[in-house]
Amino acid sequence: MRAWRTAFLAGLGYGTMEPRRVIASLRSLGYEGIEWTTGHFNPDKPLAELKELVARTRDAGLEVSRIMAHEDLVTLDPRVREERIQRTLRVIAAAGACGVATVGTMTGPAPWDPGAPKVGRDLSEAAAWEQVFEAYERFGRAARDAGVTITSEGVFGMVAHDVYTHRYLMERLDPAVHKVNLDPSHGVLYGNLDVGWVVRQWGDRIGHVHLKDAVGRPVMGEFVFPMLGEGRVNWADFFAGLAEVGYRGFCSVEFESFDYYRQVLKGDPEAAARVSMEQVRALLGEG
């Protein structure tokens, strides 16, 4: 019996769908939570609208697993960087006002953005980390004030991208408000294949989990995030690790099998959520 609950990241076609339809769809498929993005939980909307979004989610018997507020924090433009930080700070404040437990962040620079700087070419690694640490310190202060937790994700190509580089970040931050969004897919691209060990290394520092598989190398165009069970994540070890550390939060499916989504599922987000739930249950031996 698992202690954690299953959520779905409301991206793909869900991102432009009315919240009530997203909620009804994911509830019908058996999900227990929704990971909203800033597409729906936009901090520039009136607070009353954001509270209504959270209330509707809960009225349907679901929970908001977290708000994904990923912003690239490494840039050569101080104005752009400050805008991104301020936007994240507004999300943190709004999440606290709405009673949402956690807000998700990442570091940068984003390898998929052709305009993002390259570490070692456009700025030093030291300068990139300095930008990240300064932003996270501000996020931490805001999180303490708002009563929420920051859950940071290591993402391929960024300064924090696997268990080792991510730990370098987390060791500098207050564990009371800074926890980890553990996504095993990015780590396996760098050879972190012992995913059960990775889970145990993080232990109670895990505040949220993404379910996503991966195969390939951490270079744009040389990897894919395939269907759960098709990549290099050893899901039996991963789930066993979560049980061993007593994880009781949310595991949120982040569907990024984009070619399958377009070519087979014809851009239907509910079909993606349905097949993902089937995969999770099969990997857990639940049906």
Average predicted local confidence, pLDDT: 97
Number of domains: 1
Q: Unreliable stretches, pLDDT < 50, 5 or more residues? A: none
Instruction: Provide the β-strand percentage band.
Output: 5-15%
- The fold-level CATH name is TIM Barrel
What proportion of the residues is helical, as a percent range?
Answer: 40-55%
N/C terminus separation? 13 Å
Radius of gyration: 18 Å
Question: What attributes does this structure have?
Answer:
287 residues; alpha/beta; TIM Barrel; 8-stranded parallel β-barrel
Detailed description of the structure:
The protein has 287 residues and is an alpha/beta fold. It has one domain (5-284): TIM Barrel, CATH 3.20.20. Helix content is 42%, strand content 15%. The protein contains 10 helices and 10 strands. The chain has helices at 19-28, 47-59, 78-98, 125-146, 163-170, 184-189, 195-202, 235-245, 258-263, 269-284; strands at 5-9, 33-37, 63-68, 102-105, 149-152, 178-182, 206-211, 215-216, 223-224, 250-253. The strands form 2 sheets. It has an 8-stranded parallel barrel with strand order 1-2-3-4-5-6-7-10, surrounded by 5 helices. Strands 8-9 form a two-stranded antiparallel sheet. Strand 5, helix 5 and strand 6 form a beta-alpha-beta unit. Helix 3 runs parallel beside helix 4 (125-146) and helix 7 runs parallel beside helix 8 (235-245). The protein starts with a strand and ends with a helix. 45% of the residues are buried.
